[in-house]
Write a structure and sequence with these properties.
The protein has 164 residues and is mostly helical. The protein is 59% helix and 4% strand. It has a two-stranded antiparallel ribbon with strand order 1-2. β1 and β2 (7-9) form a beta hairpin.
Length: 164
């Protein structure tokens, strides 16, 4: 590692720092370039002169003071306000749809129980009707009623053949 102007430079393998003469030549070429209207890019020497150890931390770093003070949250909310609104909106829609679905499931369950009860009532009514329509029960009811003029036939019914 080399130290130059209180700035630590890391030299990677395969990289050689240009000589002072090459830097001077680049600076001179940049100063005399025909593109006078353009903004000139800072030279390596100017960048080295500007760099010092007293520089503020890079923007990407996050300190505890920024987090506790709310700077981080404010920056995050400003940057992602539409995303946050979309997430809140989708969450509300999700909760609403889920609530409605649960209400529908409860209603379906209640209606299924009502259907089962109705089937049982229909089956018991059908059973009672079948019992009351038996010939023995009909005869018992006819014999108990004194005002009834109906009597049981003594002869079997006749079958009349019908020609086609």
């Amino acid at each position: 590692m080399k130290k130059n102007n209180d700035v630590e430079l890391i030299v990677e393998a395969g990289y050689e720092e240009p000589l002072q003469e090459e830097l001077d030549e680049r600076d001179a070429a940049a100063a005399t370039s025909p593109d006078e209207g353009r903004e000139k890019a800072p030279t390596l020497r100017q960048l080295k002169a500007q760099a010092s150890e007293d520089d503020v931390a890079p923007i990407g770093t996050l300190t505890l003071r920024q987090i506790v003070g709310g700077d981080f949250l404010l920056t995050f909310v400003r940057h992602y306000v539409w995303f946050i609104v979309l997430v809140v909106l989708l969450t509300c829609v999700y909760v609403g749809v889920r609530y409605q679905c649960q209400q529908d499931v409860i209603e379906i369950s209640r209606l299924e129980h009502e259907l089962i009860d109705a089937k049982f009532r229909a089956m018991s009514s059908s059973s009672n009707l079948t019992e009351l329509c038996r010939q023995s029960n009909v005869l018992k009811v006819l014999s108990q009623d004194e005002d009834n003029e109906l009597q049981l036939p003594e002869q079997p019914p006749y079958i009349i053949p019908v020609g086609e």
